[in-house]
Amino acid sequence: MTERILVTGGAGYIGSHTILTLLNAGYEVVVLDNLCNSSQESLLRVEQICGKSAWFIQGDIRDRELLDDLFSTQQIDSVLHFAGLKAVGESVKQPLDYYDNNVSGSLTLCQAMACAEVFRLVFSSSATVYGEPTHMPISEDFPTGVPTNPYGRSKLMVEELLKDLAHSDPRWSIALLRYFNPIGAHPSGLMGEDPNGLPNNLLPYVSQVAIGKLPQLAVFGADYPTPDGTGIRDYIHVVDLAEGHLKALQAISHKNGVNTWNLGTGTGYSVLEMIRAFEKASEKPVPFKIVDRRLGDIAECWADPSKAELELGWKTERGLQEMMSDTWRWQLLNPQGYATKRY
Ligand code: NAD
Ligand code: UD1
């Protein structure tokens, strides 16, 4: 029988790309999203690409009544849990919103799942839970560190909550997926990242500079102990990331307890290397200025992804130039993001 997956936050950037992968793999998908940081248009684009659609419910993961109703009317087998707030700076200014959405929301979701006896969960965690490791690459057995902001702490809290839960009841099968830096877009140019207002993350900012929407990029620090002085990160193509979710979902159907996997490429690139690669893909200049370091940033962060390769049979397939050209195609075809009229 076809498995049915509940995808919370499925209208968002990573969720929508993962839904496409799930539908292509033959799963049925139910999406729960309150659209606080997304538009339902992303799901229409999924349908345009694959000819299949997900069932959409507009609602909040903190709404227990809605969740109970959803689990009692839909035969859900597993949950992919993307819903949450993710802007680091905003989390410093509005910590309660972050703990409420990310921590209380996850708690309510787990309570409703337990009540409905749905015990398979894939959680969107982040490499931010490692804090500031002393050496690279980062493997899953590194201790979790001290995240520098409420967003990071909310992710670590949910990880701890899920570990306690699995410890209390062996029926739970939980995947903690620690993403490194997701970038890129679907190669069709129909789906991609659509940040609200001024982008916080590097790639959306760079692509808006290249298209002329923003005048120049501020490079946050060129005095890090890295070869060119700028910060190094492990950028992963969102389609590779989506495929990692499919593999994790399949793995936890026959693995109980909590399993943690890094989803990264194993290669780090500096900010200056990223700028050069984007200029090459877009054939546009990306003017930049070196400014002070951003508070809370670390010098370098890249994954040891070998556990995921060994246990999930997953590794990334898309390189830096593909990440850049797919981002650029999305930006060119959708200057207003999902508000751009479909062609
Ligand atoms: P996104 O903002 O595009 O998607 C999150 C979705 O959740 C949005 O559609 C939003 O409307 C929805 N949502 C938020 N709060 C909700 C609530 N209370 N109830 C229902 N829906 C709600 O973000 P994304 O980049 O796709 O990230 C997905 C997940 O991955 C998040 O949990 C994020 O913290 C995590 N993550 C993202 C990154 C990244 O760089 N994008 C890195 C590490 C981890
Ligand atoms: C940020 C978050 C992290 C989150 C991750 C993925 C912070 C401190 N950390 O990580 O918690 O999990 O996003 O969503 O915000 N850069 C510039 N100029 C810019 C933007 C970024 O130079 O305008 C640099 C940064 O200093 C960093 C690199 O680009 O070296 C990547 O930055 P970003 O895309 O924001 O991701 P992270 O800082 O790794």
Report what the structure shows.
- The chain is an alpha/beta fold and 343 residues long.
- The chain is 40% helix and 17% strand.
- The chain contains eleven helices and 14 strands.
- The strands form four sheets. It has a seven-stranded parallel sheet, sandwiched between helices.
- α5 packs parallel to α6.
- The longest helix is centred in the N-terminal third of the chain and has 22 residues, at 95-116.
- It is globular.
- The model has no long low-confidence stretch (mean pLDDT 97).
- Uridine-diphosphate-N-acetylglucosamine binds next to α6, α7 and β8.
Fill in the keyword field for this structure:
343 residues, alpha/beta, 3-stranded mixed beta sheet, 11 helices, globular, binds nicotinamide-adenine-dinucleotide
Task: Sum this structure up briefly.
With 343 residues, the protein is an alpha/beta fold. The protein has helices at 13-24, 41-50, 64-73, 88-93, 95-116, 150-168, 202-210, 238-252, 271-282, 306-312, 320-333, and strands at residues 4-8, 28-33, 55-58, 78-81, 120-126, 173-179, 181-183, 217-220, 232-233, 235-237, 257-263, 269-270, 288-291, 300-301.
